[in-house]
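Quick board copy: two proteins, each given as sequence then tokens.
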Amino acid sequence: MKPIRILIVEDEQIVAEDLKRTLQKLGYIVIAHTAYGKDAITQAGSTSPDLVLMDINLKGETDGVQAAEVISWLYNIPVIYLTAFSDDPRFHEITKTNRFGYMANPYQETDLQSAIENAMKLSQQKESSHLY
């Protein structure tokens, strides 16, 4: 099975670097990182990741929820939300509407791996259900 290719969208550089190291240690390929929602949309289109790890709060005008909606709609790429602010009202909304998952920072390595594997399974199930 080929390694899962991941786009990191995180505005905190230290968090992004830690995620990158953790993901690589787990055998995933980090194809890019950005701190901006609009850049995430562009990079998702040009690099075709298997999965996007998306912070809710980003730099620039487009937040993570908006960017994730566009990425999901345009490219059908699963998105796992990341946030350090579980008291953010948007956090509660995304936990109701996003079928691929979310992670609260700080995260545990095993929880991150489980979230990624579950999102990929859900994505594959969704794709295979459209074939019939």
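And the next:
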Amino acid sequence: MAANVRTISEQIEALASRYELPANAAAQLEALLSIVASDPLAPTTVRDPQGIVDDHLADSLVALELEPVRSATEISDLGTGAGFPGLPLAIALPFARARLVESNRRKCEFIARAIDSCGLGNADVIHARVEMWPEGIGSADLVTARALAAPDVVAEYAAPLLRRGGSLVIWRGQRDPAAEAAGERAAAQLGLHVQETRRVAPYAGAEHRYLHVMSKVRDTPPRFPRRPGMAQKRPLGGVAASSDRARR
């Protein structure tokens, strides 16, 4: 092995150091990597250790560059899939409560195994469609969504869950002006404000990685959430746009 090539464990330690994570975070991240790589029912196409480090762990933790993420105390991760970014953020922020919302039962069962494997006491899996989760309304100061849907659709899912002053962070790939404009139109109807679009580099060589941040500045109208499926069928932004699902 070349001298400048780090092992997977060394890369995880470097991530923990980069974001000044708690002392046991590296071990928990390794446990998460292990179950994603070894569990035959892990709901992700990224199964090799290097891919998991880059496209799941580093890509999730890069949101810690944002102050609203670092200071979050109540996180709702929507359409969490295999648990990203929710599980890495729960590891990074042990004093925050992370609720991972997923409508697919088998994915929820995997997430529950991953929570147990990582020894996470601050994470819960919620088996529900987000539009049918009344307990979540007004409960979060941070909502996250990665490879879930177009920005206007994600904004509609997230806005009812956020407290005023809370933030929505959406992971996206290559920028799409039409999708971003649709997201801004939807945000205006939902009590959200488009705060920034930040280019990030979760690992060396990463391209087209952006975090889209919206803040909740007004109460969301009581007609939201609409019934399941309406956000996709009749998007508030007025156009159908890409969900950017490349990193599942």
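Board note added afterward: The chain has a mean pLDDT of 95.
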